[in-house]
């Protein structure tokens, strides 16, 4: 066991070969029952993992599930901050993720020491942090928000309340514009959403003049200004399914197209084009794509890598996440 833990620390996941004759889907389902585990997955992970999950959702839905699950073990297929949030909310449960290397450019953009110094410059401001941040940043925050509740939470604050918004400057600018609130922004960004190419998008729209363009608020302002609808991943999915329109260009990570196409099989759903620098024609999050069936299987079998959050950090982070869950009850 010690050797396994050392290796997991070194490479970030259980690096054991999986025999060719193993039916990974059947084995993962068996382990789920045997260990009373729940698999929570974000829409951006590979479709094969989404199809195995007990719950697929956006960051708000996933944290609500993590807080309420009766399972003994939470297997989080997403990125590190999501597993951490689950542990913050369910400290007595074992929380595992397939690969510790699955980080997030937004979370990485805000190191705790630099953020604490930044915050100290604005002593009369409260800190609203997007859930895409580390547990340390959550511990330094007053309220956590996600893309599905940020507008409502900001609107619920007194007009004269001064606000720091971190770490996503694009989401912060979008909220600021929608609510008319001036906020101090931390300058972080999502590498995936800022890579959508306006030039290619305009070409694609010319090829599909009837298409509705839907976008996630992590996109840059010059992309969002062309959107017919802006929302969280769950909101984008709902819009595409419920809309009477037939063709959609989707400005977010391409993993969501799996659910959209399952839920609206007769609609034409096209990923928004990424810049020429991207390896694929669409927008893919390299961190989300670190979740593979093999790593998921090994993670459930060996119950590693496990997410551990120091208790002093956890308690403070929990307060800001619980404030969000409380404020989101009637959304
Ligand atoms: P939501 O699913 O909450 O919209 O967040 C998108 C995202 O970038 C998660 O990393
Ligand atoms: Fe982070 Fe962007 Fe990947 Fe979401 S899509 S996990 S915000 S890098």
From TrEMBL:
[4Fe-4S] cluster binds at residues 104, 190, 285. Its EC number is 2.5.1.72. InterPro entries: NadA, NadA_sf, Quinolinate_synth_type2. Its main location: cytoplasm. The keyword S-adenosyl-L-methionine does not apply. One of its GO terms (biological process) is 'de novo' NAD+ biosynthetic process from L-aspartate. It is found in: Cytoplasm. Its cofactor is [4Fe-4S] cluster. It holds the Pfam family NadA. Binds 1 [4Fe-4S] cluster per subunit. Iminosuccinate binds at residues 42, 59, 130-132, 147, 216-218, 233. It catalyses: iminosuccinate + dihydroxyacetone phosphate = quinolinate + phosphate + 2 H2O + H(+). The keyword Mitochondrion does not apply. GO terms for cellular component: cytosol. Keywords: 4Fe-4S, Cytoplasm, Iron, Iron-sulfur, Metal-binding, Pyridine nucleotide biosynthesis, Transferase. One of its GO terms (molecular function) is quinolinate synthetase A activity. Catalyzes the condensation of iminoaspartate with dihydroxyacetone phosphate to form quinolinate. PANTHER family: QUINOLINATE SYNTHASE, CHLOROPLASTIC, QUINOLINATE SYNTHETASE A. Belongs to the quinolinate synthase family. Type 2 subfamily. HAMAP family: NadA_type2 (MF_00568). This is Quinolinate synthase. It comes from Rudanella paleaurantiibacter. The gene is nadA.
């Amino acid at each position: 066991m010690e050797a396994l833990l050392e290796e997991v620390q070194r490479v970030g996941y259980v690096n054991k070969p999986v025999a060719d004759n193993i039916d990974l889907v059947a084995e993962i389902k068996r382990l789920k029952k045997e260990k009373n585990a729940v698999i929570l997955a974000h829409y951006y992970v590979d479709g094969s993992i989404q199809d195995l999950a007990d719950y697929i959702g956006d960051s708000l839905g996933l944290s609500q599930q993590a807080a309420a699950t009766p399972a003994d073990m939470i297997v989080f297929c997403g990125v590190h901050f999501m597993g951490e949030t689950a542990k913050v909310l369910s400290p007595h449960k074992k929380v595992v993720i397939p690969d510790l290397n699955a980080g997030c450019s937004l979370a990485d953009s805000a190191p705790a020491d630099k953020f604490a110094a930044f915050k100290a410059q604005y002593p009369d401001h409260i800190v609203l942090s997007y859930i895409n941040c580390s547990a340390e940043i959550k511990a330094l925050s007053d309220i956590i928000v996600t893309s599905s509740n940020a507008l409502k939470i900001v609107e619920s604050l007194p007009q004269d309340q001064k606000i720091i918004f971190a770490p996503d400057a694009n989401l912060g600018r979008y909220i600021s514009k929608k609510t008319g609130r001036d906020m101090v922004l931390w300058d972080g960004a999502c590498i995936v959403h800022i890579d959508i190419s306006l030039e290619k998008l305009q070409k694609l729209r010319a090829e599909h003049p009837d298409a509705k363009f839907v976008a996630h608020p992590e996109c840059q302002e010059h992309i969002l200004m062309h959107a017919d609808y802006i929302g969280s991943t769950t909101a984008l999915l709902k819009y595409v399914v419920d809309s009477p329109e037939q063709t959609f260009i989707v400005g977010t990570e391409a993993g969501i197209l799996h659910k959209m196409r399952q839920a609206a099989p007769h609609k034409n759903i096209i990923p928004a084009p990424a810049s020429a620098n991207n390896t694929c024609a669409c927008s893919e999050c390299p961190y989300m794509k670190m979740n593979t069936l093999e790593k998921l299987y090994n993670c459930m079998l060996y119950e590693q890598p496990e997410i551990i959050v120091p208790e002093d950090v956890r308690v403070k982070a929990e307060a800001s996440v619980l404030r969000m869950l409380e404020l989101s009850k009637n959304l």
